[in-house]
Amino acid sequence: xxxxxxxxxxxxxxxxxxxxxxxxxxxxxxxxxxxxxxxxxxxxxxxxxxxxxxxxxxxxxxxxxxxxxxxxxxxxxxxxxxxxxxxxxxxxxxxxxxxxxxxxxxxxxxxxxxxxxxxxxxxxxxxxxxxxxxxxxxxxxxxxxxxxxxxxxxxxxxxxxxxxxxxxxxxxxxxxxxxxxxxxxxxxxxxxxxxxxxxxxxxxxxxxxxxxxxxxxxxxxxxxxxxxxxxxxxxxxxxxxxxxxxxxxxxxxxxxxxxxxxxxxxxxxxxxxxxxxxxxxxxxxxx
Amino acid sequence: xxxxxxxxxxxxxxxxxxxxxxxxxxxxxxxxxxxxxxxxxxxxxxxxxxxxxxxxxxxxxxxxxxxxxxxxxxxxxxxxxxxxxxxxxxxxxxxxxxxxxxxxxxxxxxxxxxxxxxxxxxxxxxxxxxxxxxxxxxxxxxxxxxxxxxxxxxxxxxxxxxxxxxxxxxxxxxxxxxxxxxxxxxxxxxxxxxxxxxxxxxxxxxxxxxxxxxxxxxxxxxxxxxxxxxxxxxxxxxxxxxxxxxxxxxxxxxxxxxxxxxxxxxxxxxxxxxxxxxxxxxxxxxx
Amino acid sequence: xxxxxxxxxxxxxxxxxxxxxxxxxxxxxxxxxxxxxxxxxxxxxxxxxxxxxxxxxxxxxxxxxxxxxxxxxxxxxxxxxxxxxxxxxxxxxxxxxxxxxxxxxxxxxxxxxxxxxxxxxxxxxxxxxxxxxxxxxxxxxxxxxxxxxxxxxxxxxxxxxxxxxxxxxxxxxxxxxxxxxxxxxxxxxxxxxxxxxxxxxxxxxxxxxxxxxxxxxxxxxxxxxxxxxxxxxxxxxxxxxxxxxxxxxxxxxxxxxxxxxxxxxxxxxxxxxxxxxxxxxxxxxxx
Amino acid sequence: xxxxxxxxxxxxxxxxxxxxxxxxxxxxxxxxxxxxxxxxxxxxxxxxxxxxxxxxxxxxxxxxxxxxxxxxxxxxxxxxxxxxxxxxxxxxxxxxxxxxxxxxxxxxxxxxxxxxxxxxxxxxxxxxxxxxxxxxxxxxxxxxxxxxxxxxxxxxxxxxxxxxxxxxxxxxxxxxxxxxxxxxxxxxxxxxxxxxxxxxxxxxxxxxxxxxxxxxxxxxxxxxxxxxxxxxxxxxxxxxxxxxxxxxxxxxxxxxxxxxxxxxxxxxxxxxxxxxxxxxxxxxxxx
Lengths: 287, 287, 287, 287
Hints:
4 copies of one chain form a homotetramer. The first copy, chain A, is α/β, with parallel strands linked by helices. Chain A has 2 domains: 7-86, ACT domain (Alpha-Beta Plaits, 2-Layer Sandwich); 92-285, Formyl transferase, N-terminal domain (Rossmann fold), CATH 3.40.50. Chain A contains 8 helices and 13 strands. The first copy, chain A, has helices at 20-30, 67-77, 102-112, 131-136, 151-165, 181-186, 207-214, 249-272, and strands at 7-15, 34-43, 48-56, 81-86, 92-97, 119-125, 141-143, 169-172, 191-195, 218-225, 235-242, 276-279, 282-285. In chain A, the strands form 3 sheets. In chain A, strands 7-6-5-8-9-10-11 form a 7-stranded mixed β-sheet, with helices on both faces. In chain A, strand 12 (276-279) and strand 13 (282-285) form a beta hairpin. In chain A, helix 3 packs parallel to helix 8 (249-272). Chain A is globular, with a radius of gyration of 21 Å. Chain B binds chain D through residues 1-2, 101-102, 105, 109, 113, 115, 136, 244, 246, 248, 250-251, 254, 258, 262, 287, and chain D through 1-2, 101-102, 105, 109, 113, 115, 136, 244, 246, 248, 250-251, 254, 258, 262, 287. Chains A, B, C, D: The active site is at residue 231.
């Protein structure tokens, strides 16, 4: 995690068949790769092979700008979907926030101390509230108000800002607006949301109030990729904490904040570190 | 918990108003009660006061067969609903089971080593499978087959067996039949079920399969009192455990068994120890 | 927790004997107290009775400046040690920090959004590093360098600052200096430390490195009151998280930060809310 | 886990160097292996490469009785330590127990329902207490009394029984005698113990009493391989549970039983499934 050595990470999914690992291992060996981590998974019900390999670039004899051309024949032969990324090129994360700042504070602090190996070119909000905090961290803060009437224009403005900033992915840090289908399609598996319940329980609005009304003994939080179906996207991480009859709704909200921070930040770190593969509305997280 | 001293336990709920605690404390002091545990809770949204008091009988100057008469005036004045129980009179637990025996094995072992301070006068099943295990533990085992057609007769036979055995409450230890509304009405807050999901997620059938399909990162189990609405009764206890993409449905079922055992046995112990008060489709568990 | 109603909280410990609860309940009823929360505990091995009562001041007919005089006779009769506090008088918390800022960031944020019902009149550090962050939050920041040679003078300066600021208690938010015995005696049960291990395992220096070397499967954090014996004071809260062979020391440090924040902030909140009673080098935390 | 397909599992450790994975993958591909699971780990601080590969035997063209000869050249070239096992050959587990039966009950039940893919040729105890339970499960039960004086003779008798039964490994299910150094040397990484604390805290005797005295907020259990240094062997699994001031020593013992069962059974299952590699007094558990 705290690797300062330059490395490349390859994420692969392919129909499972014999010889895949050997093909990959031989390809990397040909160019003298020093493999740092390798993890694989077979989903037998879907006949799918998934793999993550990270290797050191020091000593690797294939220049990375020639990687695609060299790897493509193998990928084609095995029907691989693949993506390679370089530790030297930090992904660019945009954060969307409304008024609740706890997830934002948490992400910014983790970023500042090096837990999140990404750049944060901008924060977008539909309110002014978090400006001072964001600017204290030296990050541009943009307010794009959203109403029922101006939704399309607001998203157009958001797209413009995201493109201008070169954002690779977007984190909804308790952003209280629903994104349009068009937005979601532009950033497939690239918008991470935090929902304040243990999905699929209490999807939709006011989950803490409904958890209180139902009398559950644990509350949870869920981070997931955003899809067109609200709260139905592939789950990345979940966590719960115990509550008791002594906790009222306000206590649930307070305890929930700690869950939301942890669950969202794990998802962000795994995304940044290219640990997540998404398929069939599920995720594999290679640890 | 492992108290061998004889004690009485009083469970109370009443509209919250000033002076309740003083009235109770003074009543008990009058008869020289040595209070071992006292716990109370105010639900401000329902304006409800709930309390559990346990005191030693050694030195208590009011004979317990005169308790009701002596306490009734205070209870009436404060509109209390109350119930007193004696450690010397063990509650009688009936267990219903089908074929999965893990919860049954667990309950019987806890009972054998004294974790559950109750008697088990009988086990009822719709199958023969668990007979040898139950009889090994010296407990009568009754098979009452249940089909779509004979449901009413089967329940009539179950009622007869339960009454004959003097059962106070019933534990559904993975009993795979739905009880009728009439059954539930006979034993209000006296039938404890274990559902193999983190309710309200995945209520109904095949929760592990649906958890797998949804790609959740934690699975759970829920013990609750049975009401007429399936899987909707007051929740007593819940617990979850982590799963990963490496776990298939069979692994979920295996990991879930450990949850089910723990979650059901806690509910049973708390019920036996008179720690649970149920109201508004919720429970307070005094620990 | 988020109570805006004015209230008083009474913490009591006394030799256990019959009539204690009645005496307290009658005293409060005399002055028409509306009890919001009451929790008690008997430690039978120490024959100790411990209680926390919180009541609304609205309608309470005894002026709080006359409370001590009115209550003292009852306290004396029952040999009570007691302390009363008012929600209107926020405790004043001093924070000591060195260079690691994660606990500080966390405490300041919780304070800012109202999770911690206290004032923070100052932060003291032996380094300059956290100045900008502290001052961003509008809190005075004092640097008191500490070396082996100037320890006594440094503490004298710290005492002066603490008294000037009217600090009630001190939180060591990863403060890397050992306090003198004199310091500890000045603030009995009023200095809260976070130790980055699951005490008593790995007390002393470099707990994450030693946890890694020992190959444990969980790491922990412990908040405790500071006593003269390093890492031996009464434990307030502990939490653990799972690690695996994939985690190196850096990963342990990162995962540990999340534990430290949560475990320290819970201790601080409970202390601020007068939920903790300490005796026999243990704590009771009334929830 | 619930695989009914015949498979082979290879565990490897070797000095880390380039080409290891390719060498293994090519070897298996040569014989048309269908890899079901593969997991690897690099310990960079020890420059060690560790791997577990499981493949289907159906279609594998190398007869397993010729495996060693075919694989040895590759193993030698890379200085591998390796072990192959077949799903068709169940490992033989001996259980040692004294009087506490909870871990024994748990293991026997898991074995009966197929969670533990092993045979249990015998149970050895220094007491008669568990005979009825063991024999109910159809397993031979041997009593070998142990005193300070007869320790050597007792172990000689145990060795005889173990050899006669063809035991591969031994589980100490709360067996209250310390094994000699000779015993441990005979079964390196083959004796699994459960210690009723979160090691390294509270090693040695009476951990629950000492946890109570120290006032910890969580108690734990640890399963580990037995080495000559008591409670110092490589840790396989740990788990904790929350306690409070309401729990006395008896409650700790009761809550601890649930931990012990879970933590021991996981270790046993992982050992049986050849998921554990031990080195430098640590374990890697491939999940």
